[in-house]
């Protein structure tokens, strides 16, 4: 691939405009309404996570929490733009972005129906390096802090945005080998459905996983997801509250995310959107079109329609919390996204207990889990460590 890149004339990145935004409070959209019970139900449906704690009020009433709460993955649904907005600052013409990872810190408060969540945002830092995908590429990190109506900090998300020139990515064509989607036989599809159902059965009964019962090197159950289709990608998209017409409003603080240098084909049209909101929807018209339209995916250098980085992060958090039990809690998760989930592919999450550390005050212990996400061909899509808090007994 390096040999090919040497033969391609690659456009550079001018990051001068980005320098102006580093370390400054940023604006963007805020959700207008309190979180509703059906927002949480729609979320777990869209994330393909049928845990009854998050949608069945009778089951939840009998749980250790006593009521329906939002899964920790739902936190990213309490902002506008998947938490990536602070990492997309500064005008760089002809560019697009992909998600490069999410690091999360969770501080304790759970999200419940009726909560009002607001977000503070800031561009943390960035670096430019040469990649096989698009040559000169910016990796920028932005922080979104989630705060409820009581002033409690729920968590902080440090999102990595991969910003690159789409023309470079098309010229390098580094993902050409993945242009053809796999063909699943009926037998393979049915076998995959059986694997998913077996995984779902691991968290249907009430349980509390304790620190003392977890062993070093213990493996978590495999979580299969997919095969991914345009329908599943659209269902995921519509699970995000901000995609609903009129669900957000601007906080009037400065941001350049909407004028970041998007390709004309991937830009919104705010004028027409005043009559037809689909022109600012992002999926039908705008920067997310490539997720469900192959021609636009290929325009930005991706071989076929692809899933959402924030959803990959949600799959990982759900995987960890489903294993942790009703009193388990993810305190930190650092997920690096290496490649997207493409339409037609299946995804498999695996995990292993890498370390254990008893808590200082004797009530809790911290378990470090190393996780990986791969597709059906064993291609690595995401990986990272997470820290999970478990009761000692």
Structure description:
Strand 5 and strand 6 form a beta hairpin. This protein has a single domain (2-391), classed as Hotdog Thioesterase (Thiol Ester Dehydrase, Chain A, Roll), CATH 3.10.129.10. It has ten helices and twelve strands. Mean pLDDT is 94; it is low at 1-6. It has 393 residues and is of the alpha+beta class. The longest helix has 16 residues, at 309-324.
What's the quick description here?
With 393 residues, the chain is of the alpha+beta class. The protein contains ten helices and twelve strands.
Q: List how many beta strands DSSP finds.
A: 12
Q: Determine the mean pLDDT.
A: 94
In the CATH hierarchy, what is the class? Alpha Beta
Q: How is the CATH topology named?
A: Thiol Ester Dehydrase, Chain A
């Amino acid at each position: 691939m390096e040999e090919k890149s040497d033969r391609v004339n690659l456009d550079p990145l001018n990051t001068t405009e980005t320098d102006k935004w580093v370390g400054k409070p940023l604006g963007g959209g805020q959700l207008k309404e309190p979180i509703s019970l059906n927002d949480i139900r729609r979320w777990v449906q869209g994330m393909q996570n049928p845990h009854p704690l998050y949608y069945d009020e009778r089951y939840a009433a009998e749980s250790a929490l006593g009521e329906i709460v939002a899964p920790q993955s739902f936190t990213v649904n309490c902002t506008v733009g998947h938490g990536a907005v602070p990492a997309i600052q500064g005008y760089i013409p002809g560019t697009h972005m992909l998600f490069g990872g999410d690091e999360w810190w969770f501080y304790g408060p759970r999200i419940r129906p009726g909560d009002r969540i607001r977000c503070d945002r800031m561009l943390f830092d960035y670096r430019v390096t040469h990649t096989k995908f698009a040559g000169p590429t910016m990796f920028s990190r932005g922080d979104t802090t989630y705060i409820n109506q009581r002033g409690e900090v729920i968590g902080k998300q440090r999102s990595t945005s991969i910003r690159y020139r789409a023309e470079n990515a098309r010229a390098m064509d580094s993902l050409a080998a993945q242009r053809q989607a796999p063909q699943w036989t009926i037998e393979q599809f049915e076998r995959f459905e059986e694997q998913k159902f077996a995984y779902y059965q691991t968290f249907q009964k009430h349980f509390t996983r304790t620190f003392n019962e977890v062993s070093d090197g213990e493996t978590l159950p495999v979580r299969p997801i997919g095969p991914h289709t345009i329908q599943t990608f659209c269902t995921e998209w519509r699970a995000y509250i901000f995609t609903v017409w009129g669900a957000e409003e601007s906080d009037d603080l400065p941001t350049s995310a909407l004028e970041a240098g998007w390709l004309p084909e991937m830009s919104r049209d705010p004028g027409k959107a005043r009559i037809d909101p689909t022109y600012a929807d992002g999926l039908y018209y705008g920067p997310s079109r490539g997720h469900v339209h192959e021609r636009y995916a290929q325009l930005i250098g991706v071989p076929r329609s692809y899933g959402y980085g924030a959803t990959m992060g949600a799959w990982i958090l759900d995987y960890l919390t489903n294993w942790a039990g009703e009193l388990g809690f993810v305190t930190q998760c650092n997920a690096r996204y290496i490649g997207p989930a493409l339409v037609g592919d299946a995804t498999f999450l695996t995990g292993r207990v890498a370390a254990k550390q008893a808590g200082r005050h004797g009530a809790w212990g911290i378990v470090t889990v190393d996780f990986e996400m791969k597709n059906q061909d064993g291609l690595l899509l995401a990986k990272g460590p997470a820290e999970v808090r478990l009761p000692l007994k």
